[in-house]
Amino acid sequence: MDRRSFVRLLGAAPLAARVLGKSDTPRVRIVSPYRRLAAPGMPGPYPGRVVSVRSDSVLDDATGATRGDVVRDMMGRGMCALTGTTTPTDAWRRFFAPSDIVGIKVNCGGYPYVVSDYDIVAETVRQLMSVGVPAPSIYIYERFQQQLDQVNYAPRLPEGVQIVAAERANEYTDNSGYDPGVYVESDLFGEEDTRSNMMRLVTRRLTKIINIPNVKDHGATGATGCLKNIAYGSFSNVARTHYHGRSHTYSFVGTLASVEPLRSRTVLQIMDGLRGVWHGGPFAHTNRFVFYPRRILFGTDPVAIDRLLLDVIDDKRKAEGAISIWDRSPASLRTDDTGARDTDPNVNILIREPGHVEYASRLGLGVYDLARIRVQDVEV
């Protein structure tokens, strides 16, 4: 994946343009008592800027395991390049103070093959503690406890770091982890519950958030990266946005990410691109569709990083002879969800909406135009 893959326009761009400005974008009502900061975390102080750090040696070729020492080097160089500082500690001080209560939004849905890497998460915690944030003020969070239990970050983290989920599993049986006063309301498919509430941890406890998504294909959005991880991972009742071949993720991903206080408090994006999923995402039930970009991307602008991600996923799919994430042909739909999507990369169960990234840019969350995205490549 060279520099040209980042800056080349998609061959399907004219098709994407026709998707934008859709007439069926649903009406939403946003309820939140929180005000936007004068300088919100998204897009943050570095709009349109992405640092991409790559290392051939970060994964052990024999075992596939991550080399923690290489990850530490990659993270240090990436943060220094992003901030223009000379030491990692100075870079982290640009974002965090000892008084902060910091959430780290991980992604556990791709277990066992592609989750937010243990060493990336551990190094993030180490650097937070190096600038004075105490372990009990650091929260690893995800929506579902069941997924956190599977991944099991605790043995690799310092004592005192907290691991928190909003609900046990995606069963709509317990809403106590969500804030009843912060929500997005929209009737998408005539569903009974039309509200998506923000996690109580985000609204009432955290002062800053670090987003650590993966490089993954997604059946509803085309690709799932920074925007979807922070948006759908911080709200309840989001699976309702895609149903029976149709998807409202085009507008809903960015809408959720723009709600306060999530937008203002999410100050750093660290995309784990060591491993990725090029089909069947956001899950990874088989390693057939796993690939290894061996990169970590750094920025404060989720739109810019996700704009690059669209090309990464689509280029990989094209190389594997699979249909584009921009494919909107009804012939590719298999709405009965018979499991073919886990074996056939030319099957869609939904019309994908990769245009969600540009929609988020229209909400002011970041830079979508490739001509304005500045990528700095670093080799380790």
Brief synopsis:
The chain is an alpha/beta fold. The protein has helices spanning 3-7, 13-19, 68-83, 88-93, 118-130, 145-151, 200-204, 226-232, 249-257, 262-265, 302-319, 356-362; strands spanning 29-31, 49-54, 102-105, 138-144, 162-167, 178-185, 195-199, 208-211, 214-218, 222-224, 242-243, 246-247, 266-277, 290-291, 295-299, 374-379.
Strand content: 15-25%
As residue ranges, the low-confidence spans are 1-21
Question: What is the residue-mean pLDDT, rounded to a whole number?
Answer: 91
H/E topology pattern: HHEEHHEHEHEEEHEEEHEEHHEEEHHE
* Shape call: globular
Number of helices: 12
State the share of residues found in helices, binned by percent.
25-40%
Description:
The chain has 380 residues and is of the alpha/beta class. It has one domain. The protein is built from twelve helices and 16 strands. The strands form three sheets. Strands 2, 3, 4, 5, 8, 9, 10, 13, 14, 15 and 16 form an eleven-stranded mixed sheet that branches. It has a three-stranded antiparallel sheet with strand order 1-6-7. A two-stranded antiparallel sheet has the order 11-12. A hairpin with a 3-residue loop joins strand 9 and strand 10. Helix 8 packs across helix 9.
